[in-house]
Structure formats: C-alpha cells, structure tokens
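Budget justification aside, the reviewers requested a transparent look at the raw inputs and outputs of the sequence design task funded under Objective 1. We therefore reproduce one unedited record. The lines immediately below are the structure tokens for a 116-residue chain.
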C-alpha cells in the first residue's frame, strides 16, 4: 500500500464489476482502491480488464495537484451515453504511481458491484 499525505492506495478484496445500462464495462479481481481525503473511494481497473469498445475518448483533460494530468472517456452502451464518466492518469505523480495503466469510473454514472 502506498501512502501519500492525503491519498492511500490498496488492493481491493475480491472481484469488482462495473456495469452501465446492463452492459458489463469492467470486471477484475485486480482493482485498486484510491482513497483521497474529502472524496469517495475510487476503484482503478487494469485497462486490459475494461471493455474499451464501449468507451470513446473525450476532449476533456484535467489536472490534479496530487495525482497529475487525467484524460477522459465517454461511455456509450445499450443506447445510452454518459459523458466524461471514465478517466486515467497515464503518468501519475510518484506518490500514486500504482494507478498508471488503470482507469477509473465515475460512481454516479455507472453501477459498481464490489460484493458489499
């Protein structure tokens, strides 16, 4: 587990699945949970465990002083869409390097099943 002044990252226990409008977008037993003070926990999935065919890269880019620069994707599945619902930090800051090569989903736009 990596510790940062305001962020911790740990391996999720058990499988985690992401669905959107009935379509399975991601399923893995290798998710990481990033906990940042002031925010809900976020699961990060290995990119090769994500059905990238449902995602289309958007124009949106953001920068976080703690994690680095992020790029975003829109979801399109089963006739529905969600804008900027997925993001990744391709070259995250050193304190959160474990999230490189992983993507995260906006929990308000998808369904997360982590067995809880």
């Amino acid at each position: 587990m990596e510790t940062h002044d305001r962020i911790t990252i740990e391996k999720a226990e058990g499988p985690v699945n992401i669905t959107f409008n009935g379509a399975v977008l991601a399923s893995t037993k290798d998710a990481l949970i990033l906990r940042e003070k002031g925010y809900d926990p976020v699961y990060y999935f290995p990119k090769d465990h994500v059905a990238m065919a449902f995602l289309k890269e958007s124009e949106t880019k953001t920068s976080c002083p703690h994690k680095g620069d992020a790029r975003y994707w829109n979801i399109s599945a089963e006739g529905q869409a969600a804008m900027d619902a997925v993001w990744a930090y391709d070259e995250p800051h050193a304190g959160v390097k474990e999230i490189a090569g992983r993507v995260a989903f906006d929990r308000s736009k998808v369904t997360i099943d982590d067995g809880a």
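The two ends are 21 Å apart (CA to CA). Residues 57 and 113 are 24 Å apart (CA to CA). Computational costs for records of this kind are itemized in the attached budget.
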